[in-house]
Amino acid sequence: MLQQTRAAVVVPYFERWMTLFPDIFGLAAAPVEAVIKAWEGLGYYSRARNLHIAARQIVERFKGELPAAKEKLEQLKGLGPYTVGAILSFGFHQRAAAVDGNVLRVLSRYFAIEENVSKIAVRKKIEEKAEELLDSKEPWVTAEAFIELGATVCTMRPRCEDCPLQGECLALQTGKQEYLPIKDSPMAVTHLHRIVLVIVAEEHVLVRKGAVGKVMADLYEFPYYAKGAKVPQLGSPWPKVEHTFTRFKAHLYPYLASMERRWPIPGCEWVRCSELLHLPFSSGHRKIARTVCELCT
Ligand code: SF4
User: Fold this and answer.
1) Average pLDDT estimate for 148-175
2) CB of 244 within 8 A of CB of 250?
3) Which of 103, 111, 133, 154 to mutate to test the pocket of ligand 1 (most atoms within 8 A of CB)?
4) Taking all residues of the chain, what is their mean pLDDT, rounded to a whole number?
5) Cβ of 176 below 6 Å from ligand 1
6) Which numbered atom of ligand 1 lies nearest the CA of 160?
7) Ligand 1 atom 8 nearest Cα
8) What is residue 244's predicted lDDT score, i.e. its pLDDT?
9) What is the pLDDT of residue 295?
10) How far is the CA of 134 from the centre of ligand 1 (A)?
11) 113 lines ligand 1 (CB under 6 A)
12) Fewer Cβ atoms within 10 A, N terminus or C terminus of the chain?
């Protein structure tokens, strides 16, 4: 069910993405703003930026061909051990393990590894064990089987009675299947409360672009301040908007204010209301931008 829901979300993005950037050369040549805009709504924008950089690296270093060698793939921006393994295994049918969170869970249980799988050394050990288990003729079939087993049977609450590995699984034999894998506890969610200023003048709205290196780099937002900070005179309040990103939950309290003229404001730019939605926005600010556009039309 979860996979179907994910597919329903991702497939339209994928189709749109392929229309905008039909090949690696198109993606490499596109401005980063267009790439971020196409990614809008998926979150984790560093992935879009990395993909864009990797496309440029592939064009510049490998003449537009995705390399089939591990050490070359590892040079590409944003490609970690799982992605490199998955490309080699599923893309080039090489003997390579693709160890994602599902596979870490399956193998840490199968071998009853009572060490923290968040540690790189433990992860590497599991990758080596995964590689040893791959079929000699069709290693990609085993690699896919591990991923599927983790996604469907050896889940957080494992269904060991349906598992094809139940005869050899050490965690099951020792009753540790629910206790493993051991990993770092998740980081606590930080709540951010922000006053957002929607300032309108001469059919334009004031926005600013996230600085390079920040979580919201290349995404546009309305000027905001931490709730409680001293801010210029506020206008009429709009309903609160919430959005979640990485480990943060933002609570946005928008206020509409108007100015007679488009005075220059350092770090900000005036954008025509009708062009607002052509810009890439972070998801909470995009909800506000839609309301702005509805008001302007
Ligand atoms: S027997 Fe249970 S714990 Fe072991 S791999 Fe299968 S589902 Fe996971």
Assistant:
1) 96
2) yes
3) 154
4) 90
5) no
6) 2
7) 154
8) 86
9) 79
10) 18
11) no
12) N
> By C-alpha distance, which of 137, 135, 115 is closest to 125?
115
Alpha-carbon dihedral angle through residues 62, 65, 67, 72, given to the nearest 10 degrees = 30
Confidence class for position 3, pLDDT limits 50, 70, 90: low
Q: Which atom of ligand 1 is nearest to the CA of 164?
A: 6
- Please state the rounded mean pLDDT for residues 137-157: 96
Q: How far is the CA of 151 from the centre of ligand 1 (A)?
A: 12
Return the percent helix, strand and coil in the chain, to nearest 5. 45, 15, 40
| Domains by residue range for the chain, with CATH | 1-79 (1.10.340.30), 80-185 (1.10.1670.10), 190-296 (3.90.79.10)
Q: How far is the CA of 147 from the centre of ligand 1 (A)?
A: 13
How many angstroms separate the CA atoms of 256 and 272, rounded? 16
**What pLDDT sits at residue 296?**
73
Whole-structure pTM value: 0.75
Instruction: Determine if ligand 1 sits within 6 Å of the CB of residue 219.
Output: no
Question: Is ligand 1 within 6 A of the CB of residue 160?
Answer: yes
Q: Which long-range contacts (CB under 8 A, 24 or more apart) does 66-71 make?
A: 66/24, 66/91, 68/92, 68/94, 70/96
280: Cβ below 6 Å to ligand 1?
no
Cis peptide before 22 (omega within 30 of 0): no
Average pLDDT over residues 14-43: 90
- With 0-12 / 13-18 / 19 or more C-beta atoms within 10 angstroms meaning exposed / middle / buried, residue 180 is buried
Range in 6-20, 169-183, 265-279 the model is least confident about: 6-20
